[in-house]
Amino acid sequence: MLFTIQVNNKKIRAEKGETILSALNRNGIIIPTLCRMKDFTPTGACRMCVVEVEGRDRLVAACSQPVEEWMKIRTHSPRVITARKTNVELLLSNHPDDCLYCDRNLNCELQRLAEELNIRERRIKAKKIRPMLDQSSPSIVRELSKCILCGRCVRVCEEVVTATSIDFIYRGSSIHVGPAMDRDFNFSSCINCGQCIIVCPTGALHEKYNISEVQEYLNNPEFMKVIQYSPLVPAGIAEESGIKYSRDFDMVLNSVLRKIGFEKVYNTGSGTDILIWEMAQQLKDRISTGKREPLFISACPAWNKYAEQFMPSYLPMLSTLKCPQQIAGSLIRTAIADQAGVKAEKIFSVSVTPCTAMKFEARRDGMMRRGISDIDSVLTVRELGRLIRLYGIDLSNSNSEQADPPMEGFSSAAALAELSGGLAEGVIKSLCYSETKSFPGRQHIKKLRTGASFRETVIPAGKYKISVAIVDGLTGLEKLKSSIAGGSKYDLVEVMVCPGGCINGAGMPFRSQKDDRKSLARMIYQAGAHDAIALPENSPVMMNIYDKLIGESSEIADKKIFHTHYVKRDVLL
Ligand code: SF4
Ligand code: SF4
Ligand code: FES
Predict the structure, then answer these.
(1) Fewer Cβ within 10 Å of end Cβ, the chain: N or C?
(2) Any idea which fold 212-562 has?
(3) What pLDDT is attached to residue 247?
(4) Domain 120-207 class in CATH
(5) Is 149 in the pocket of ligand 2 (CB under 6 A)?
(6) Measured in angstroms, how far is the CA atom of residue 168 from the centroid of ligand 2?
(7) Whose CA is nearest to atom 3 of ligand 2?
(8) What is the pLDDT confidence band of residue 366, given thresholds at 50, 70 and 90?
């Protein structure tokens, strides 16, 4: 039901049941918010969104208060502005003034609010919070003194990620956010997904930086410097540099990485193609033996750790295939090193990815060979953006160049694999193609693509009928579990922790809550529909890797380097 309310002496239309904030925003009236997150029930914790409602003594939080027909609202009265300003001043009263050194400098919601509210002096002084840096996690750094207790990270970890690894601890002036018993992150059940980083309005949470070690090796002539980047990275770099992305930009990134000093530049997408191809074989073997036990895809490192911690009984169903970054890394360290005549230990191997959990994945026990890790250093897209700026490279004035063989390209199936449902789609298409020389119908594929957090369908692939389930963000996991408990049988299950897939990974550029990456996802789907190389088996790059690299190397012909293991992990906290 629509009715009229009065805002700043003007009439606007509001809808029964919506909040004041929603009515204001729909009518183009903007007020600041801080603790509020789109699609979450409001908590009313920060009171940044307060407005004056005629007849009410106290200011009202617009994000949680429903509109009522009689309401007369003032959004920017002197009382409202003073209240908002005081709220921000209180937050700043014990905040460390180290913006110049902060991860979120020029991209911080607290900084922006202080600027918008014209705060030009520190009026309220409180005792500074003891600086506390928790660098124990391979993926996430906590800087407690920058936390403004908005609670966004706690809610995301509990309601979206379902790991509940952090919470408010202690009370009164000692209150802060952290793992249970106030222990370090590496003792917690954190799965390194970094979704908390994305929602944190300040620099209290950020990825563990690996830029310095990369710089150090770039200057070391004893090492061959090699970099791989996953298919989403060019779009991420374009986004954070304010450049309109098109597929041509992928080739620009190759020359940029060479200018920085990398001697070999590879596409992680070639690793994805190997994964798709090998997993299609694993799936076929499993179905052919009549084993009606699902094969769980193991390409999302946050999911792998979640399964190890919270669902150990599922581990035998988890594919042993490594994720694309590690597959590409293991090839670089073995056959590619041999071809180049370089010792494995004399390669410094870097990966760029949209995912913070890959920093953890690269350090797993099962990701090394003869004591040397597949990958030395993992950078997020944001870190690579910094490295590009550090080296003063003009993106708009860089050549287009091919990546280096043997990992210079990938199929559209590999590009789709970074969207939720995409990897399962590639595996099923590959199996279907090997059986029938054709693809499953569009109506089947459509059901795998983005939508609900749990999707299931059955796809015919020649003589097989593949029952597949997609878990898009861990909120869909409960539905999967109850479906399995209810007797549903699946052949293939894909779980991605970040809703929507890697496209919303925590290593991608920060963006405002109203922006999403739906247009980028659409572009990837559209490009996929027109790509000449739809599958790994159509790709000359893949044929070369299998025939020349794998086939001719006695060391890796058994392809064991592409496999790892996952083990039950005790959750201490
Ligand atoms: S990284 Fe993920 S699991 Fe860890 S605390 Fe943040 S949201 Fe929770
Ligand atoms: S760490 Fe960030 S998101 Fe979490 S409560 Fe503190 S300021 Fe908010
Ligand atoms: S945004 Fe409304 S109370 Fe925080």
Answers:
(1) N
(2) Rossmann fold (3.40.50)
(3) 85
(4) alpha beta
(5) yes
(6) 10
(7) 200
(8) very high
